[in-house]
Specification:
By secondary structure, the protein is an alpha+beta fold. It is 18% helix and 38% strand. Strands 2-1-9-6-11-4-3 form a 7-stranded mixed β-sheet, with helices on one face. It has a 6-stranded antiparallel β-sheet with strand order 8-7-10-5-12-13, with no helix packed on it. Helix 2 runs antiparallel to helix 3. The N and C termini lie far apart (37 Å).
Amino acid sequence: MLSQDWLVTDDGTSEAWEQSPDNLEILTSQYRLYRFLTELEDILQKFQSDRLRLQAIFPLVRRLLTSSEWLQGEYLEPNPETGWSVLTLYDEPDFPLTVQTVAWLPGKVSPIHNHATWGVVALISGEEKNTLWRRTNKNGSIEKAGDIILNPGEIMGLMPDAIHHIEALGDEPTISFNLYGETNYQQRFEFDLVTCTAKNF
């Protein structure tokens, strides 16, 4: 079954993105993290548009997922108290990239939030439901815009103002490879459906 890639726009709309044709030799040759980071830096310098950046980044992420066996085991067991864990693979001061793996226990749900930067989530294992939201005013009121269920090998891109929350489905922990640009923390929010407010996250 062919996997599906997605882009989530600032207003919560999801767009199915076509995958670039797979080149078996490229996908199966060893792809090192340092080469991935170097090619990412080239993309960030070449494109100013977050949408164009994401389109160029997706094939690199797919290659990393397909050819880097080490990545399959690079995660922390989810914390039993919080239900999740984050392992930072790369984060350098004054360099606009954060690379991490995130693990969730089955049934756990994240707060509703945005990232205030572009982002890429690629599922390594498990099944992850992303519920998408859109703002209805500037105070923090939001409404549901849709759902995307990610399966292993599928990739979702997030524009800076995209709002979502995550639910780990199934019986096994969900593990994802996450990549983010430089976050504007003053614009990163957690949304409360009851009070219709947003607070810094």
